[in-house]
Design goal:
The chain is mainly alpha-helical and 379 residues long. 48% of the residues lie in helices and 3% in strands. It has helices at residues 25-38, 47-57, 79-88, 103-127, 167-176, 182-191, 200-210, 219-228, 238-248, 267-281, 292-305, 319-325, 332-340, 348-365, 371-376; strands at 23-24, 100-101, 217-218, 289-290, 313-314, 345-346. The radius of gyration is 24 Å and the shape is elongated.
Length: 379
């Protein structure tokens, strides 16, 4: 049983000045609640409900082309694609300061869920003997709904992934695939213990609720992030990104290749989001580190100096940064060259290096804050 609706098909503007940072926690929860509300209904959801959700709940008001597709449905099977699209498009309430999941994480978790869903179906098929029927083993008077948990829906395609996992399958995904703390896994399992039809939206919402922030970035990380950017390339250095990602140990080795570093934004914006992704999934720091919450704040601050909306700060845009963090008697051009390694533009990672030297390291040296107090800002 699935929910058939009139789906809004829209032109996505990936290169607008406002850039997506994935899905904020409020986005994920709204999408989860939306599908919980309408899943399993036979009637078609009116078009105005979908428009209301996108325009008023998701605050996506850049629809330039809207039409009805009779073949399009939104159900548990298509939730993954819906999440991916909503993670990539610009939303008026996109805010790098707010807690959420980056597009890297959304793509990784959605693909991981889909692979596990497919494996669970293949396992069921292998377990069926020749001549087995769906009704086999049922006693007189048994009903199809018997034994179903909260949120269960019917499977509308034998042998096909149905977009949901039973609680047992979901628990297996947590134990075998995700490298989370044991207490976090237990909280997630208990949260969904009465749900035997868990879709990917519910998975992301529950994971977002219980996962802990990473420990942020130290000086070594910032210096490595600076080397990811090469101005004459359209994208970050994929080989270096892959190496840094593998060190994060987010998922088991079997699923590591599911990461997708392709990015719709320009290289400057791409680096901004990668800094957030890295900080919030990194658990190994040395010495003074910038907590993950502060990494988000620094990225946001950097965007305020980027008046050209191209993801980087030129020398002409650098003056407000210089006035905020350096003495007037210092050579502005010399400072710019030092922190940009003689590049024409300054990236978010280079700006973070300034913040590290002028704020976090200075505070530590002056004993204005302890490392424990600094890390408390990330909670």
């Amino acid at each position: 049983m699935y929910l058939k609706i009139t789906l809004l098909i829209c032109a996505l503007h990936f290169f607008a000045a406002v850039w997506s940072v994935g899905l904020m926690e409020v986005h994920i929860n709204k999408i989860d609640e939306f599908f919980d509300k309408y899943r399993g209904r036979l009637n078609e959801v009116p078009k105005n409900i979908i428009i209301h959700f996108l325009l008023n709940e998701m605050l996506y008001n850049k629809l330039t082309k809207v039409y009805t597709s009779e073949d399009a449905v939104i159900d548990d099977k298509t939730v993954p694609n819906f999440l991916l699209k909503m993670g990539l498009i610009d939303k008026d309430i996109d805010d790098p300061q707010e807690r959420g999941m980056t597009t890297y994480e959304i793509k990784l978790y959605v693909k991981m869920f889909n692979v596990h869903d497919k494996k669970s179906v293949e396992g069921e098929a292998e377990g069926k003997g020749e001549g087995d029927s769906e009704a086999e083993g049922k006693g007189e008077g048994d009903s199809e709904a018997e034994g179903k948990g909260e949120g269960d829906i019917e499977d509308d395609g034998e042998g096909e992934p149905d977009g949901v996992l039973t609680h047992a399958e979901f628990s297996d995904l947590l134990d075998a695939v995700l490298n989370l703390e044991a207490d976090v896994k237990l909280k997630i399992k208990n949260k969904l213990k009465n749900n035997n039809a868990i879709n990917v939206a519910k998975f992301l919402a529950t994971l977002m609720e219980h996962r802990t922030r990473g420990k942020g970035l130290d000086k070594r990380h910032i210096e490595k992030a600076i080397t990811l950017y090469e101005c004459y390339y359209a994208n970050l250095n994929r080989g270096k990104q892959q190496e840094l990602y593998e060190n994060l140990n987010i998922v088991s080795d079997e699923y590591k290749d599911l990461i997708d570093f392709e990015h719709p934004q320009s290289i400057g914006y791409e680096l901004q989001e990668f800094l957030i992704f890295w900080a919030e999934n990194n658990n190994e720091v040395e010495g003074v580190a910038i907590p993950s919450k502060d990494v988000r704040d620094i990225v946001y601050e950097f965007t305020r100096y980027d008046t050209g909306n191209d993801g980087v700060v030129s020398f002409e845009e650098f003056e407000p940064i210089f006035r905020s963090y350096f003495n007037e008697n210092e050579d502005i051009r010399g400072v710019f060259k030092k922190y940009t390694n003689n590049n024409a533009d300054m990236t978010a990672a280079m700006f973070m290096n300034i913040k590290y030297d002028k704020i976090f390291l200075r505070n530590k040296n002056n004993e204005d804050v302890t490392m424990e107090e600094t890390n408390d800002t990330a909670k």
